[in-house]
Specification:
It is found in: Endoplasmic reticulum membrane. InterPro entries: EMC3/TMCO1, TMCO1. Belongs to the TMCO1 family. This is Calcium load-activated calcium channel. With 192 residues, the chain is mainly alpha-helical. It has a two-stranded antiparallel ribbon with strand order 1-2. The chain is built from six helices and two strands.
């Protein structure tokens, strides 16, 4: 029982607990994504087709810049762009199924953390945040000290940064050509 007393007497124990839980949650979420998505053959084939199409599009565009533009070249570029958009959309739909499971895990962990740290200051910000950020960072806390940070804000920041970096480290980040595409891609200026 000496260990819990030691941790509770440590100055930053609450903030370190939130960060540690955030790291564990990110690892669990990536494991779920690996089981449901990343290890499947359909994901691997979609990812490779997106990589090939984005490389091909990149080379075609650099060649088009060097040489005068021809209608046949622009049609080929449009065809490759369309193929890339379709593959990216399919990849996003494919990832959607694990998104529901990951959201459920995050919802449960957030609820647990919220009950553990309700109304408790877990960190001090080194600055006074602006309006909307202060509403998020001071959510559920009593008092007027704007530098007080709630669990929700710290967990939110940690979750975003840790999971994104973990995906990059494990090689699960989206392919280059799929970065801007998704379920709701930007409208094509050529068709408008």
């Amino acid at each position: 029982m000496a260990t819990p007393q030691f941790l509770s007497s440590f100055k930053y124990s609450d903030s370190l607990t939130v960060v540690a839980i955030s790291i564990c949650t990110a690892v669990v979420c990536e494991a779920i994504s690996w089981i449901l998505i990343y290890r499947t053959n359909s994901y691997k084939s979609l990812k490779s087709s997106i990589d090939k199409a984005s490389k091909k599009l990149e080379t075609m565009k650099t060649e088009t810049i060097k040489v005068t533009t021809k209608k046949s070249k622009t049609r080929k570029i449009d065809r490759v762009e369309t193929s890339l958009k379709e593959s990216s959309r399919d990849l996003s739909l494919f990832k959607f199924k694990s998104g529901a499971v990951v959201a459920l895990v995050l919802f449960i962990v957030f609820g647990l953390l919220n009950s553990l740290f309700e109304g408790k200051v877990v960190a001090k910000l080194p600055f006074k945040p602006i309006g909307i950020v202060m509403k998020m960072s001071h959510r559920g806390l009593q008092g007027d000290d704007a530098t007080d940070c709630s669990m929700a804000f710290l967990y939110f920041l940690c979750s975003i940064s840790i999971r994104t970096n973990l995906q990059k480290f494990l090689g699960f980040s989206p392919p280059r050509g799929a970065a801007g595409a998704g379920l709701f891609p930007m409208p094509d200026p050529k068709t408008n």
